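User: I'm writing a tutorial on reading structure tokens. Could you give me a worked example: one chain, its sequence, then its tokens, then a sentence or two explaining what the tokens reveal?
Assistant: Sure. Here is the example chain.
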Amino acid sequence: MTLDLVNYDVKVREAVKAFWGNRDAARQKQIESGNVDQGERAGVTAGKNMDGFIALILDIIRANGLSQAEIHQSRAVLALPGFFRPTKLWDLIVMYKGELVAAIELKSQVGPSFGNNFNNRTEEAIGTAHDFWTAYREGAFGEQPRPFVGWLILVEDAPGSRSEVHCASPHFPVFREFENTSYLKRYDILCRKLVREQLYTTASVIASPREALDNGSYAQISDMTNIRTFVTSLAGHMAATAARLG
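And here are its predicted structure tokens:
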């Protein structure tokens, strides 16, 4: 069966435009109401910034054999059991014939505080995956094949995310791949390792400048972590599930 990637590049560009447009709309709404959050928080409190990417994922799922899947997006039905905590809210959950097919996290980061936010995102991604797979091992989702677990982040393409950052480790040397790397490169390394350690089926990072509001432009850091790899892996899992469950 040929995988259908649903003209993903066009849809990613539309998702990028929607991301920056929704941030600006949220900020403008707060300005007009006189209730403005501090710093960049004004652009994220609307909670709809990654909806364009959710639309792309839905198209991939439906085009590759699972048009009848239960696709959950509402907060009330996004909780899955954990092992170290009772539950975890995901951004998107896919169920089919009583089986958990996919759980996906969609994240974003804009400047200027790339350093602290990178560490927070890293700890969150690792902790979420470890909790999930331990729960899976302990039978939280019943007896079933491993579901697709995806992690995708959009990072602002800016001097602060592109500039090399010094590593401070006074007692032991850091791993060589982290030396004098930018935060965008560190996200690429993170995604590679998340997949290599089997914490996520696939993990992707894309970079986009604020000016992409007009044209949806974005850049990818490496073949292993690019958006085509993400959508191809997702499409393949959906097709395999459809073939297996009928």
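What the tokens reveal: Residues 8-33 form the longest helix (26 residues). The helical segments are 8-33, 51-63, 114-137, 159-162, 183-196, 212-215, 227-245.
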